[in-house]
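HUMAN:
Sorry, I am quite new to this. Are you able to go through these amino acid letters and fold codes? The numbers rather puzzle me.
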Amino acid sequence: MDTSKEYILQCEKAVEIQKLHKMNTGDCYYQTKDDSDYCEGAFTCWNGLRPNAGYHDYDSWWYFPDDCIWLPKQDQLQEMVKTEKYGCDKNFWLLEDFMRWRNKYAEDNASMEQLWLAFVMKEKYSKTWNGTDWEVLT
């Protein structure tokens, strides 16, 4: 799982992706500041069984600090595009399009999460990463 500063910034700036998120056990987050209850850093949510992981009560409410950024995993990013454009049975075409895009535009040092996030932002929102923010493709 990518917890690099670059990926955290990309996720933070991908407000469209952050709005889609529904919290689940196993999700990865980054806490942006240190406060009295939580430490700054990346963590995985496990129903409160790990420290700094938020917790889940009996009424199905999730509690997290206000400054958490969801860090989507590769499978979560793939799911965002495969059902809309390709349908569940079209994974081959999704991977074909991803590889074609990757070979043409992607940076060699990017993680798979960074690559898939960039692909999702291009496919769903026609945006590309400029090094500091997502901008609309022209």
Observations:
- DSSP finds five helices and seven strands in the chain.
- The radius of gyration is 16 Å.
- Strands lie at 28-31, 41-44, 55-56, 62-63, 68-70, 127-129, 134-136.
